[in-house]
C-alpha cells in the first residue's frame, strides 16, 4: 500500500509515518505542502490513499483535495484538522474528503479511520 502524507510539520509527518509503518503500510511518500504533494502525486497511479493536513503554506489541504478530485481521482483522502477547525470539516467533505482526523490523535484513531476508508481494511 502506498500513501501520500502531506503536512508542513516534519515532526508530524515522522510521527504519522511511523504509525502507518507499524500498521503495515509499506510505502509512505511525504510532502511539505499541497503544491509539493501534487508534484509527487503526478497522475495518481500507484497511490492508494492521501492523508493531508488542512493548514499548510503554498497550497492548503482543501486546495489539494479540490485538485485531486478535479483530475478525476477517486482514491480515499483523510484530512487532518484541529479542534478549532471543525466547522471546516463540512467544506472538506463537500470537496471530496472521505474522513478526517482531529489533532491530537493516536494510532488507534488513525487505524479506525484507515479501516473506514480503505477497500481492504483487514490488512490494517
UniProtKB/TrEMBL annotation:
InterPro entries: CheY-like_superfamily, Sig_transdc_resp-reg_receiver, ST_Response_Regulator. Gene3D superfamilies: 3.40.50.2300. It comes from the Bacteria. Signal peptide: none annotated. Residues 2-118 form the Response regulatory domain. GO terms for biological process: phosphorelay signal transduction system. PROSITE patterns: RESPONSE_REGULATORY (PS50110). Keywords: Phosphoprotein. The modification 4-aspartylphosphate is found at residue 53. SUPFAM superfamilies: CheY-like. This is Response regulatory domain-containing protein. It comes from Novipirellula aureliae.
